Amino acid sequence: MSGRGGVKHQHWDGVVPLECQPHPSILRLSANLDWEQANEPLHFDIDTSK
């Protein structure tokens, strides 16, 4: 696979390809059942009881 961005020699180069960046049209359903813009990590508030 070729392209920019990735891990080389066990070190992340910090480059996020355009197709992997957040986009305002991609939404996620939060734990409060609100739609919001999706950002990494997508699952950070799924299990709020832990």
Automatic annotation (TrEMBL):
Q: Name the domain of life this protein comes from.
A: Eukaryota
Protein keywords: Hydrolase
**Signal sequence residues:** none
Give a GO molecular function annotation for the protein. Answer: hydrolase activity
Q: Which InterPro entries match?
A: Carb_Esterase_6, SASA
- Which Pfam families does the protein's record reference? SASA (PF03629)
**Which stretches make up the Sialate O-acetylesterase domain?**
1-49
The protein, known as? Putative carbohydrate esterase
